[in-house]
């Protein structure tokens, strides 16, 4: 295989990296590909394209298997050229993704292998378990590569308690199944495995197979590769296929080619499934030589149509010799598709799993050595033992006790020293002490603590820790740090789970013990132990050992060591979040050491992300830059960490920096820290500090945390204002997480504008508090553009974890954001770029400012009922004025549409409606601005205690925005209805006009025929009737629409995103549904999983029936109200109706079947009423009926013309009766409603209707006087 391997690596341009020379550090560098994602233009670019996409957690990375223009040749070639299909499958410009992954793992060093496996696992790809190398008979167990993968799952045994398991996947004791194949096998085991793992959820290509892009390309080096993936349950019977986690291994190539791998997999597996068409002699010998084959071996036989008898005979012979039971042979019938067979296979696996032993990958190590396989982590045994010695020393003792002995510098004295330094600046002294006396006391206590800390000796564990960080052996150092991280994380998971369990129990109690919860919060915080605590102790050893003059050389080398770690991609703790302090000497000397190591070329671009806890801040940075900030480690780490990313030589000039510094912060508004006294102040200090350091600040907003985010923004604005004072104006980007859809950017324009309005409002308030009245807008303090600086990022997971892969849309959106961000940095190049010395000076001055100021930013939140009620009254007046103006405008616009010339083309009317809609936007915007102005002026008044209701201003602003949207929707619907009515009336009037012309023509003909004859009135009427009957005989009516079908279509659209297709398919006609009152059935009532007693269920049944009756009554009134209007049916009526039903359903508990049955019932009622409405509308405009109305007038005209009478007076009477009177009546009826409301609001009882509180009070008083309890119940339900 060696020549084949080197040939393949040379083809990919990877030969110089073999073996294991490709490093993680080299991939994290910011280069031109960070700006422009280039497709692979040559085979040598394919590995880098794959790695770039993988590091962005882009699930499409496995599609990077061929040169981007390779399809062009195929399109231009002759499709009938048989040589195309008989030539070697493996073209020069494409590779099999399995070969690509194998090559990259062979070239990657141990840490890059770990990072690749971790990111592949996040994408829900299989990861290498056994890696073939130069000779296929040799293989390596990839235990180290998989060590970093931590998974969460919920076995069905824990589903009741809603608990979960979190574990390193190589340490999880779970069933292990291997899937292999024989030489003759036409069934794709990878496809079957994918189907098994995807049952009950969206299909995902976990294992690469021949039907995937590049999967059919001939493999060169991947045979012998064994991959592994895991099925992890979420704790629900549906859609979980397996109740417990299971590992699935997949061996590439046939077992004869990879005998060592197969034998090893068979020995460690719970069961092994062999896929085959027939069994060759050599394969028969291999299978029959296996021990325990009759209980662990399963044959999956693909029986094809016309399978040779000898093929089946070879299988039968092996089965007989192995004494396999029938249940161990799974026949794939050609009549059963892959899905059906996968279900059969999963059922068999479930059956096998019961009572079988489990296996963890960690314990496969000894067996791997026995079978002659190498193990990748055997090279780091010394570092493993050193880290094990430290972690074993922790034992079962409580973490706070361990810290006080082994990490003493970061204990209570360090935290007290931090408080003293702040107090020294703020001097909140007791009244009994003079300022200088108090300051002297503080200085004396500070000095005592420093002396005490300086005299402490290195603990045994810290001696071991520092000793394991040699200066010139970065590989040993990195292995040791990784082992420490892995073991400490595992220890933390075990220790913190019991504390979290206690905390949950206390929080769920009815009578919560606040003090106990507070105590547990503190204990959770102090029980956190990770690699960062040892690194922090190392920094404090340096910080305090310099206070006394007996510093050893060992201590002096620490800043240089930390600088090397920074350059190798390790984060440095900038702000100790536990003590809320910066070890200034340590941070300064580390960064100055780094400055010297890079030849004093250290221009920095500082980028910070800020947001509420658990909103995906660290994940965002990790995806953007491929780094690995801690995510969901389960520990309450506090503070800010900085990470240096080197900028490549070709990009340094463009970005005007040598390093991009990422600052990741703890989440603000942490629920666990909220119980602590200093949590609010701590958040403010952290936000102010990191924003002050930044050139670019990312405000991370998750839609579900919007309320907390407002608090964060208040904090941020104060910080931005302070930066403005000292001449710094950072770029700000808002990232809105969990927002998807192609129209998201356009649809959220209103929300973005609302956010900006809120920011402006907060800025104004903050500016007043900061005594900067000249600042009015958010953009006065920050470089922010509402169009360019807002980013919508879809949700991270494509489906529901733990089996969900990362959403490709997430990684692509983050990549676009990163590209735009770096492009923006390129455009705004400035000469004022900080190098490390300037950055450190900035850190010192900023931290000094933080210490001198007590950042308690709070707006007054007290609500005074009277002040609030007065504002409500005023607001109702402004709202009515806005609404009344719109009603008058709407009536005028509708009249203009309905009275437009019938001869005009329909498109002209549509243009007119579009024009009206444009005018409407301006009209509504004007009304909104007027209401905003009224609100602003109201809040400027000094005589009505508006300061007490400051916090509610944003609610009224939101109400104004909501009114604006509501009015726009309503008036737009009215305009659309008017257009449809006009189109319908045009059809009717065209028919009328045509026949009126014919009638007039026939009348004139009758007159000319009878001009010289003398006829009586009776004869004239008879002749006219004959003519009328003849002319109107063929008058066509207007076509009746299928209203039931239209209503049903809207119902289908309403349920389009939910699985109700089967119920809807059974509906033939909505009108036929409502044959009696709606009855709640037992299948409608939702009961708990434990069930309930009969009488309790009866009570629930009655409550649901009562609710259904009320909802149907309310909706029927809504429908009847619509049906009474003199308009035609419009689809918006059904949409509004279904929205009304949804509103009424909120807050009630029921089965989904109840919702669909109720909506079908209500839509059935609506379809009948809307049909009746439609028929009335048609009859009012029916050409025949309309012509019949004018028949007496035509007859009188005919008689008058025959007798040559003057008919002006009669015509005038007709005009008044037929034209003037209807128009006046219509005008009065249109304006009557608004005039009545005006009269009510201005009349002597206006106070009763001036606010919601008054209005409800008066209704309840009236109901009380009536003494009618049922009316009161109805009022409550409404």
Describe the structure in brief:
This protein is an alpha/beta fold. Strands 10-9-8-5-7-6-1-2-11 form a 9-stranded mixed sheet, sandwiched between helices. A 7-stranded mixed sheet has the order 12-14-15-13-16-17-18, with helices on both faces. Strands 3-4 form a two-stranded antiparallel sheet.
Characterize the structure shown.
One of its GO terms (molecular function) is GTP binding. The structure is a single chain. The chain contains 49 helices and 18 strands. With 1278 residues, it is α/β, with parallel strands linked by helices. A 9-stranded mixed β-sheet has the order 10-9-8-5-7-6-1-2-11, sandwiched between helices. It has a 7-stranded mixed β-sheet with strand order 12-14-15-13-16-17-18, with helices on both faces. The chain has a two-stranded antiparallel sheet with strand order 3-4. Helix 14 (309-322) links the parallel strand 9 and strand 10. Residues 855-865 have low confidence and may be disordered.
């Amino acid at each position: 295989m060696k020549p084949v391997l080197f040939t393949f690596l040379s083809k990919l341009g990877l030969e110089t990296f073999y073996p294991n020379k490709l490093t993680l550090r080299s991939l994290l560098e910011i280069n031109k590909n960070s700006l422009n994602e280039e497709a692979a233009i040559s085979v040598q670019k394919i590995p880098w394209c794959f790695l770039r996409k993988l590091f962005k957690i882009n699930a499409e990375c496995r599609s990077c298997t061929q040169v981007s223009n390779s399809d062009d040749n195929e399109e231009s070639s002759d499709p009938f050229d048989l040589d195309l299909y008989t030539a070697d499958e493996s073209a020069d410009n494409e590779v099999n993704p399995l070969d690509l992954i194998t090559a990259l793992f062979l070239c990657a060093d141990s840490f890059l292998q770990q990072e690749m496996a971790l990111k592949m696992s996040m994408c829900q790809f299989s990861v290498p378990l056994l890696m073939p190398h130069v000779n296929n008979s040799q293989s390596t167990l990839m235990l180290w590569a998989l060590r970093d993968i931590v998974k969460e799952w919920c076995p069905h045994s824990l589903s009741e308690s809603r608990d979960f398991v979190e574990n390193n996947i190589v340490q999880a004791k779970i069933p292990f199944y291997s899937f292999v194949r024989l030489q003759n096998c036409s069934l794709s085991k990878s496809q079957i495995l994918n189907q098994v793992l995807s049952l009950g959820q969206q299909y995902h290509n976990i294992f690469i197979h021949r039907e995937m892009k590049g999967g059919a390309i001939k493999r060169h080096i991947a045979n012998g590769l064994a991959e592994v993936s895991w099925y992890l349950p979420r704790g629900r019977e549906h859609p979980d296929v397996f109740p417990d986690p299971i590992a699935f291994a997949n061996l590439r190539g046939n077992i004869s080619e990879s005998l060592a791998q197969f034998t090893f997999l068979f020995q460690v597996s719970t069961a092994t499934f062999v896929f085959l068409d027939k069994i060759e002699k050599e394969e028969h010998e291999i299978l029959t030589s296996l021990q325990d084959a009759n209980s662990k071996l399963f044959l999956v036989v693909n029986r094809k149509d016309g399978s040779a008898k000898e093929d089946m005979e070879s299988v039968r012979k092996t089965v007989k010799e192995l004494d396999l039971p029938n249940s161990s042979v799974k026949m794939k019938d050609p009549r059963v598709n892959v899905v059906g067979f996968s279900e059969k296979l999963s059922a068999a696996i479930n059956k096998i799993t019961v009572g079988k032993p489990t296996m963890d990958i960690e314990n496969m190590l000894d067996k791997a050595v026995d079978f002659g396989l190498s193990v990748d982590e055997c090279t780091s045994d010394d570092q493993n033992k050193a880290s094990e010695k430290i972690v074993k020393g922790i034992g079962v003792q409580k973490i706070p006790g361990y810290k006080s002995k082994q990490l003493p510098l970061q204990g209570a004295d360090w935290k007290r020293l931090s408080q003293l330094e702040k107090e020294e600046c703020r001097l909140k002294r007791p009244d009994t002490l003079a300022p200088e006396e108090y300051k002297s006391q503080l200085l004396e206590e500070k000095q005592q603590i420093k002396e005490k800390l300086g005299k402490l000796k290195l603990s045994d564990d810290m001696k071991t820790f520092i000793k394991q960080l040699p200066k010139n052996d970065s590989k040993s150092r990195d292995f040791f740090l990784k082992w420490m991280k892995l073991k400490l994380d595992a220890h933390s998971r075990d220790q913190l789970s019991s504390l979290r369990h206690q905390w949950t129990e206390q929080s769920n109690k009815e009578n919560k013990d606040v003090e106990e919860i507070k105590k547990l919060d503190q204990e959770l915080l102090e029980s956190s132990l990770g690699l960062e605590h040892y690194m922090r102790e190392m920094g404090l050893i340096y910080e305090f050992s310099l206070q006394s003059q007996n510093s050893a050389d060992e201590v002096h080398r620490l800043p240089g060591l930390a600088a090397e770690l920074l350059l190798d991609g390790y984060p440095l703790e900038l702000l100790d979040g536990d003590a809320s302090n910066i070890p200034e000497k340590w941070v300064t000397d580390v960064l100055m050491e780094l400055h010297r190591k890079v030849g004093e070329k250290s221009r920095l671009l500082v980028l910070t992300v800020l947001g509420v806890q658990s909103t995906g801040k660290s994940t965002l940075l990790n995806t953007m830059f491929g780094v690995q900030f801690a995510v969901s480690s389960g520990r309450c780490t506090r503070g800010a960490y900085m990470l240096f990313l080197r900028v490549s030589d070709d990009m340094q000039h463009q970005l005007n920096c040598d390093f991009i510094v990422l600052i990741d912060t703890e989440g603000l508004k942490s629920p666990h820290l909220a119980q602590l006294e200093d949590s609010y102040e701590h958040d403010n200090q952290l936000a102010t500090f990191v924003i002050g350091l930044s050139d670019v600040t990312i405000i991370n907003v998750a839609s579900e945390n919007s309320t907390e985010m407002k608090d964060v923004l208040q904090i941020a604005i104060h910080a931005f204002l302070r930066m403005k004072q000292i001449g710094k104006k950072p770029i700000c980007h808002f990232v809105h997480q969990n927002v998807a859809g192609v129209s998201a950017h356009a649809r959220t324009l209103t929300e973005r504008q609302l956010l900006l309005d809120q920011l402006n409002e907060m800025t104004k308030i903050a500016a007043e508090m900061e005594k900067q009245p000249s600042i009015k807008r958010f953009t006065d303090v920050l470089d922010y553009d509402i169009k360019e600086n807002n980013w919508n990022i879809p949700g991270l997971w494509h489906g529901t974890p733990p089996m969900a892969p990362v959403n490709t849309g997430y990684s692509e959106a983050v990549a676009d954001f990163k590209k735009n961000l770096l492009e923006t940095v390129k455009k705004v190049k400035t000469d004022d770029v900080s190098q490390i010395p300037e950055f450190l000076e900035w850190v010192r001055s900023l931290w000094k400012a933080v210490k001198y100021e007590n950042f308690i930013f709070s707006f007054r939140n007290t609500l005074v009922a009277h002040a609030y009620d007065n504002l409500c009254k005023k607001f109702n007046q402004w709202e009515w004025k806005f609404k009344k103006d719109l009603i008058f405008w709407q009536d005028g616009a509708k009249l203009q549409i309905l009275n437009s010339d019938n001869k005009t083309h329909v498109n002209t009317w549509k243009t007119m409606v579009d024009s009206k809609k444009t005018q409407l936007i301006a009209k509504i915007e004007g009304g909104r601005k007027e209401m905003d102005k009224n609100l602003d002026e109201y809040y400027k008044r000094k005589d009505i205690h508006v300061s007490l209701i400051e916090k509610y201003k944003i609610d009224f602003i939101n109400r104004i925005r909501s009114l604006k949207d509501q009015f726009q929707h309503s008036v737009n619907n009215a305009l659309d209805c008017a257009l449809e009515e006009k189109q319908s009336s045009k059809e009717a009037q065209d028919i009328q006009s045509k026949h009126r012309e014919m009638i007039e023509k026939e009348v004139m003909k009758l007159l000319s025929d009878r001009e010289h004859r003398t006829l009586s009135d009776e004869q004239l009427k008879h002749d006219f009737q004959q003519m009328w009957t003849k002319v109107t005989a063929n008058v066509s009516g207007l076509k009746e629409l299928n209203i039931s079908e239209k209503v049903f279509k809207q119902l289908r659209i309403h349920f389009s995103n939910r699985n109700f297709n089967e119920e809807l398919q059974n509906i033939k006609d909505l009108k036929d549904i409502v044959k009696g009152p709606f009855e709640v059935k037992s299948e409608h009532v939702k009961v708990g999983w434990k069930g309930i007693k009969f009488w309790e269920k009866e009570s629930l049944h009655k409550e649901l029936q009562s609710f259904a009756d009320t909802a149907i009554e309310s909706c029927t009134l809504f429908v009847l109200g619509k049906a009474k209007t003199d308009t035609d049916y419009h689809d918006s009526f059904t949409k509004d109706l279904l929205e009304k039903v949804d509103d009424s359903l909120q807050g009630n508990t029921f089965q989904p079947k109840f919702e669909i049955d109720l909506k079908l019932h209500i839509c059935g009622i609506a379809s009948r009423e809307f049909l009746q409405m439609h028929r009335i509308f048609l009859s009012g405009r029916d050409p025949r009926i309309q012509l019949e109305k004018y028949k007496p007038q035509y007859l009188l005209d005919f008689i008058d013309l025959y007798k040559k009478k003057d008919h002006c007076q009669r015509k005038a009477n007709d005009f008044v009766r037929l034209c003037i009177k209807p128009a006046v009546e219509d005008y009065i009826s249109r304006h009557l409603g608004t005039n009545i409301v005006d009269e009510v609001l201005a009349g002597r009882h206006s106070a009763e209707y001036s606010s919601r509180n008054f209005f409800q009070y008066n209704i309840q008083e009236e109901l009380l006087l009536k003494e009618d309890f049922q009316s009161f119940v109805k009022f409550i339900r409404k």
